Amino acid sequence: MPGERVRNLTSWIFSRRVLIVLAAWIVLSALGTWRHHKRWIEYNASDSWTVVDSMLHVLVLPGWVAAKVTGGNYNAVYSLRWAIIVNTVGFGMLGIGYLVASGVSRQLAAWLRDSARVESESVDIDRRSLLRAAPELAAIAGGGGLVYATLIEPAWIHVRRHDVPIAGLPSEFDGLRVLQITDTHRGPRVTASFIAEAVRLGLAQKPDLTVLTGDYVHQGEKFIEESAALMAPLARAVPTVGVLGNHDWYAGSRRVRETLSAHGVWMVDNDRCFMRNRYALSRDAGGLCIAGVGDLLEDDVEPDIAFAGIRRDVPRLLLSHNPDVAEMTQLGNHRVDLMLSGHTHGGQVSLPLIGAPGVPSRYGQKYARGLVDGPSCRVHISTGVGMSVAPFRFGVPPEINVLTLVRA
Ligand SMILES: [Fe+2]
What domains appear along the chain, each with residue ranges and CATH number? Predict the structure, then answer.
């Protein structure tokens, strides 16, 4: 009967459960929008709020995916209008999902009560209680996963080591310890203190050479000076060589390059330098060559320029932010003993059996992480220190790497 339906609907709308969800929707949407504005539009958020802001961002992630699709590009993240839409829609979807799950579980519990015939009353009550609590239990499990992926794993830096045999490596470089630090992404999502911790951990490995493979700053001119200054302790301690990544281009490639150089990092985008001994870098050819190429997405990739005029018997490392460069046929014309890359972050999420479903590479999971054999050289891909478009890591903790070169 229509009158009864209206009464049922009215009592459902004004039920305590629905009113609580409505109030939470309004409060969380406002909180999410305010925090997003502080962090991504004003660039004025305190580091101590970073994890809270990341969690709020994750909760409305389906809304951000929709914004990226309908808003046309990544710049939706810098728009207040999109922040309001995404937070309102995202938290609305969560609230509706909770109410639907809650209604379904109550119906199931009622059905179980009505159909119980042979089981004892106590077992029946236990099952019904469990079903009724299912949405809350799912929310607690989801909350636990969220805390792990945004708070615990991204802060858990690993040191990964590999020995890399190199034919004809001069004896003075046998056992050279190369520290790779990449994708620090200083910006709204990664704090300066976390990057400083990665640098301290790197120096504790007693490296002979540091290579930096790009994405020092996530985006925003404000972070350029600080992102480069964070690398200065490395350059003061050991020879340090770097190339730019795509995010450095988004922030301003010329300024990032100049600022890193001013802090002592020898930049080799489509260029090279040499270690003629274990203690210093030089322009003069000989010893061990450390070359670099420009970023594949934002710059020219010029191995012919980087390696021009170097004798074939000089062993060499190649820094390339993007590991897909390994597949370029042009690279096959040159001797490369080891290419060092970042960029993929290992996909940031890796699931049992499936692996990493979202690796930013044309070659799927091949260059996601670790030591990989490319068509013409070995490639080491570090999962990096920071985070990019997604504020979480799962199964792919941050890492720094120590590669020991061994005479073969
Ligand atoms: Fe990156």
Answer: 2-152 (no CATH), 159-407 (3.60.21.10)
Question: pLDDT tens digits for 237-291?
Answer: 999 999 999 999 999 999 999 999 999 999 999 999 999 998 999 999 889 999 9
Work out the burial of residue 84: count CB atoms within 10 Å of its CB; fewer than 13 is exposed, 13-18 middle, 19 or more buried.
middle
Q: How far is the CA of 269 from the centre of ligand 1 (A)?
A: 16
Sequence-distant (≥ 6) Cβ neighbours of residue 131 within 8 angstroms:
105, 106, 108, 109, 112
Report CA(53)–ligand 1 centroid distance (Å): 20
**Torsion angle defined by CA atoms of residues 275, 280, 281 and 286, in that order, rounded to the nearest 10 degrees:** -30
Residue 76 neighbours by CB distance under 10 Å: 19
Around Cβ 157, how many Cβ atoms within 10 Å? 15
Tell me how far the alpha carbon of residue 384 lies from the centroid of ligand 1, in angstroms.
Answer: 7
Separation of CA 294 and ligand 1 centre (Å): 14
pTM of the predicted protein model: 0.88
